[in-house]
Amino acid sequence: xxxxxxxxxxxxxRTALAEYLRECGYQVLEAVSGTEARTILxxxxxxxxxxxxxxxxxxxxxxxxxAWARERCPSIEVLLAGSVAKAAEKAxxxxxxxxxxxxxYNHKNLLARIRRLLAARHxxxxxxxxxxxxxxxxxxxxxxGAHGRLVAS
Amino acid sequence: xxxxxxxxxxxxxxxxxxxxxxxxxxxxxxxxxxGFVVIEAACADEAVSLFATGMxxxxxFTDVRMPGDLTGLDLARELSVQQPSLPVIITSGNxxxxxxxxLGLFVSKPYELSRVVCLxxxxxxxxxxxxxx
Lengths: 153, 133
Description:
Number of domains of chain A: 1
Structural class of chain A: alpha/beta
Largest sheet of chain B: 5 strands, parallel
Radius of gyration of chain B: 13 Å
Shape of chain B: globular
CATH architecture of chain A: 3-Layer(aba) Sandwich
Oligomer: heterodimer
């Protein structure tokens, strides 16, 4: 079962999204802040496939968190969610193909995105035997390591 | 003794209020494995926000000392007024059962996950008290 870590400070948003993804068959872990997410990511007992983080978190930006996560776990896929004002601007710098979806979360679109990410990851693992060289459609690559996709309005 | 509260046909929803993320993760996973729907809150203030939406919760399992304006005891006190039939289980390594008296069942930390699941099932009328091995 694939494991998704949701990092979202707003409990109502987080709960609804987490429950939807659980019903879709994923194991979902929840964090309310970057600090909590780092604690989970640093826990050897957890093996996260996808980090789904809000661009704005109470204690740090989702961009900082995803950069840290990618550095620590290069195979992790990252989805960032944010508002246009800041997130899209940053996405222009961090992501090759810019905003992907809109906020508030459209659960079905997000699920489709997650499935495509995992399928691409699976294909790349099968073809290269590693996750270091992901093709377009996989994780975004950058100079400081991959930061991930942006889900923004 | 008859349970105060029984969930018959649907999966019961448990609100876990715990600021230690790995502890929260563990107990939430254990409860999901036992068939419950679990909502995770990282502090009592989050729990209050959740109740403000009208979301249905069948039982609250809360820590006491957490960041934010409210403690778990404050939350339990508030719920005892607003939703007196809602079962509350209070857990802590810092306070005693006496501190939680009248507010809910008390479970001291550290606790066994399976024991907590059994207690929750008992409180919801899903099992006979004392029937866990």
